[in-house]
Amino acid sequence: MEMKMKMNKSWFLPFLILLVLAFGVSCDETEDAAGTVLEDIADFPTSGTDVALVVVNTSGDAEGTAEDTGDLPVSRAFGGATKKYASKSTGTFQQALKDLPSGKRVPRSLQNSSRADARALTPSWNGITETYDHVYQYGDEGVIKTTTVTRVWTGTHCYIFCQNQFASKLSSADWKTLGDQFDANYEKMTAAFGQPTDIDVNGKVVITYFDMAGLTGDPAMVDVCGYFYGGDLYDLSSYDMKTNCMDVINMNFTWGYSASVGTYNVLKEPMVTTLVHEFEHLINEGNRNYKGKTMMDTWLDEGLAQAAEELCYTVLSSRIEQFNADSDYPGYEDDPAATSYYIRNGNSLVVWDQDYADYAMSYLFMQYARLQCAGDTTIYKSLIEGEKGDYSGITSIVTKANSSFSSFKDIVRGYYLANYVQAQSGVYAYSADYPLTVSAPTKEIGELLPSSAVYLKSDLSSIEEAVKLGAQGEKIEYALVVDGAVYYVENGRWVKKN
Amino acid sequence: MRNFQRMAPLFLILSAAFFSAAMKSPAPQLARSKNPLMVERESLVDNTKVTVAGRLRLVGSEPFTSYVITPETNFDIFIDEDSVGGRQNIAKLQYKIVRASGIIRVQPLRKDDSGKVLVNRYTLIVNDIGEYKK
User: Fold this and answer.
1) Separation of alpha carbons B53 and B69, rounded Å
2) Do the interacting molecules here have an ipTM over 0.90?
3) CATH of the domain spanning B32-131
């Protein structure tokens, strides 16, 4: 060991001198205003008319902060990307366009209890239950509320219950149709996502419909189609929290009310898609937290839940529209805080803010991952059953299935490029079912959060003049798209990658 | 370019000095058991002071999401959001590696019929939290 060290020392100095000299004569360098040495990127493409620079923060673990993008050219608008808004909203932008209530309904954490002993689970279910008292408020501020529900359908894989006063609002034929549809979807869901828990030992999933807004008095619940609450899988009574102790999906019966005709319809969109969306959450909780594994990142869990919607029904065109419109918080386009949530301004894939951009990006990322794994929907199950509940879980699955990828960097860069390039096949492809468009930033971008990107439409000379190496963050990757050809920077040179 | 060439000798001297110093005194290794990134769930005792580190993740499905710290030993430590004055105060740390200290609560989440604990829930009542500095 000692000998080796001495040898290292003896050649290190000459080697360093040679390295510095070689480096000094081979690079074209400048300095930026901060004194950072900047290098040109060699082998710049010489011709091309349709040119864009894609700048990606390829970090999934975000050890640190947002990363400096380095200097970037000014972008022109992408074709058809500019969107005008018809009206201004009122209130703060945080209140706009939320499709779910905020975290105020999250039950009290366990640590607030003075007692640390929990009993073994004692399900209230006895297998012949026709009615039960459904918990819809779990003990926030000490208040536990229930409503009596009645069984309206027994399927192969489900029991359907409805709040007593609404149970007769739907015909038994409609309840049967709903139950049959869930049973058919159950087979698809368990094949792709895995088995649900059966903590109530009844062999079925309980689906309970009730009037969420009416019972809670919370107007925000009007817009909620349904939810799954993980606490329902546990007996938390010793923590002063009453839960349902069931594998139960909560559905908002009154969401299906049509005021114009005065009828209820639980079979319409998005009620049926929400049902399988929440079923994925049930399976996810049951295979991770319930088993003592780490919980899954929300962006992945919501991506999987939307994958369930697509698996059982169809491509989520509404999410594609939201991605393409990229218009979260309409009416607040002049608010820097609001526009930072735009996909085009670098909204992060992995940092969840609960807005449309997050849902659309997580949905599309999960579909991109599936398509890059030869369309195999069992990647969802692999992800849920895997050891890691974060970006590294999906990384190990995709890198095993597709040799084009060796890291999360490869996957997230491929995803952002596929959003723009829309190739027919390969790493930069989805399929024709996902017609995506990207937009230029609405403001100057100097930093990018982990797993975010910006698209800059420009020309070759402007990009060559602006983009140098040296000032950008460690995880920032530049990609150049010239007439459909993709270039990455490798060892200081542009290298064609398709 | 000219500035860089002028700096080259200084760079060489500093590099050689740094290399020499590195050979003589290797950086001390943090003891594994004391590394907050490597905290083991079995080592956590209910109602004791701890310092942990890991990725601050938002987990679970909407609208019942939670913030957890996941150390490199791959288990979740839930953040008591009241102790940080609400989740909005830690939102900017989402997906970053953080270091946090406080009181740990270790509470059974699931037991079997014999009373044996199957799954514990770990919750940190936070006294201090910030980005992790190595």
Assistant:
1) 7
2) no
3) 2.40.50.140
